[in-house]
Write a sequence for this structure.
């Protein structure tokens, strides 16, 4: 019988899983349904006949509210590999498993197959503080070759962003993950002067993979990719992008309606960032958190700070598609013509001021390029919601088919979240013929994605 790695004493994963499941009054069948693993597989895990994967441990930990205790019992070192080391070292390429709990060490695997380590530092519940160790075994590649390769990957990144505006998240997933692996390989073979550039670009691919996971309604996957992006950026000493990953985590908290987490994460990003762009984005996210709390004054104050910071960025000439120094894609939306208006309109709606939201958002939709289907649908859904809640039913319903028709193709959990809210709003007018027709279109759109694939929706979905 194979035993699981032990966190303390002689407690194994299977024994602890059974204890917690029975304490929660949950049958093995119910847990199987909840975590989407087969009954037979879970039964063998509990009996110690099969080892639990990290993914299974995370799902069981969540379903049984174990607070990371189950995850800590899973073996992270592959059999036959050397022990995971700690402390500073040079070279190599970081690669992390999803990071959720402080004080845990995760196994990493570099392009050269050397075992790596990332340790989540105590006192950092959002898992952004990491310690990386690695080694490089391959001969260094020349700077000219690295520069040419990174040029290709920057163009590929732009193509992935464009493709993600047209098709669902799964359409770009394999391209993103294979690109990250390739960039890790380049970094592992590059000279120190070139390594950071490869890691910075890999971090951007990982962040976008996290956004695609979020759009697919996979919150655990989104958090995992966010942790990977932060670790890669940290290894490249890209402080601003590490701070930006906090802003992305704050966006996930926003869709969970955890306003306090949104504000706390945004403020941490502001404190860590050096550049005005990321600080401006952090202020925008903080404003959304205050709006969710209903704090009008704090929201407007944050929006004002964001506007000042973005104006400072424009004055400095760094508001384009890439930074002047490194050629790296800048953080934030590349397709919203007026992201500040989108955020302001969002805030006005969440502050209970839908008419003001309509005033801010009206006109912005047409400024978004036609090929940016995801951005147009997100913007349109938020505008429709503001229109409906401000009593402008005819105008809201007139947009319904255009927005909902793209949801099937885009498979967007964030758009569906707004459509669900819109559906609730329209239900207040059951005798309004346009509202009934719009509700039918929305119902069809909400039946796509995770529901069609048979997966239980996450809080984002």
């Amino acid at each position: 019988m194979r035993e699981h790695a032990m966190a303390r004493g002689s407690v194994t994963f299977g024994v602890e899983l059974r204890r917690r499941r029975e304490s929660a009054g949950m049958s093995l069948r119910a847990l199987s349904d909840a975590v989407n693993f087969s009954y037979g597989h879970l039964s063998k895990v509990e009996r110690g006949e099969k080892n639990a994967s990290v993914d299974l441990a995370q799902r069981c930990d969540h379903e049984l509210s174990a607070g990371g205790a189950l995850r800590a019992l899973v073996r992270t070192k592959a059999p036959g590999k050397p022990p995971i080391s700690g402390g500073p070292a040079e070279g190599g390429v970081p690669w992390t498993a999803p990071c959720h709990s402080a004080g845990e060490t995760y196994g990493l695997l570099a392009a050269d197959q050397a075992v790596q380590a990332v340790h989540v530092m105590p006192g950092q519940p959002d898992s952004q503080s990491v310690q990386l160790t690695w080694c490089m075994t391959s001969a260094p590649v020349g700077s000219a070759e690295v520069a040419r390769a990174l040029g290709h990957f920057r163009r590929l990144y732009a193509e992935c962003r464009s493709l993600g505006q047209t098709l669902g998240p799964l359409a770009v997933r394999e391209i993103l993950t294979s690109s990250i692996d390739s960039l890790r390989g380049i970094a592992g073979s590059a000279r120190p002067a070139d390594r950071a550039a490869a890691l910075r670009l890999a971090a951007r691919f990982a962040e976008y993979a996290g956004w695609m996971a979020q759009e697919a309604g996979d919150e655990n996957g989104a958090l995992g990719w966010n942790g990977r992006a932060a670790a890669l950026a940290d290894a490249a000493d890209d402080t601003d992008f590490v701070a930006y990953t906090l802003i992305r985590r704050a966006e996930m908290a926003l869709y969970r309606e955890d306003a306090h987490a949104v504000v706390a994460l945004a403020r941490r990003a502001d404190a860590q960032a050096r550049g005005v762009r990321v600080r401006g984005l952090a202020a925008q996210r903080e404003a959304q958190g205050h709006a969710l709390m209903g704090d009008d004054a704090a929201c407007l104050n944050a929006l004002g700070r964001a506007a000042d910071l973005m104006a400072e960025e424009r004055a400095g000439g760094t508001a384009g598609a890439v930074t002047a120094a490194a050629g790296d894609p800048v953080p934030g939306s590349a397709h919203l013509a007026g992201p500040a208006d989108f955020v302001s309109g969002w805030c006005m709606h969440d502050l209970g001021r839908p008419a003001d939201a309509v005033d801010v958002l009206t006109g912005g939709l047409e400024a978004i390029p036609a090929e940016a289907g995801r951005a147009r649908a997100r913007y349109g859904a938020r505008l429709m919601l503001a229109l409906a809640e401000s009593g402008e039913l005819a105008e809201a319903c007139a947009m319904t088919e255009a927005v909902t028709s793209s949801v099937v193709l885009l498979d967007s959990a964030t758009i569906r979240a707004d459509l669900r809210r819109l559906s609730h709003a329209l239900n207040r007018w059951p005798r309004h013929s346009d509202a009934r027709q719009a509700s039918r279109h929305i119902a069809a759109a909400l039946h796509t994605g995770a529901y069609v694939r048979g997966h239980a929706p996450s809080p984002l979905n």
Notes: The chain has a mean pLDDT of 76. The longest strand covers residues 115-120. The domain at 339-453 is CATH 1.25.40 (Serine Threonine Protein Phosphatase 5, Tetratricopeptide repeat). The first helix runs from residue 13 to 23.
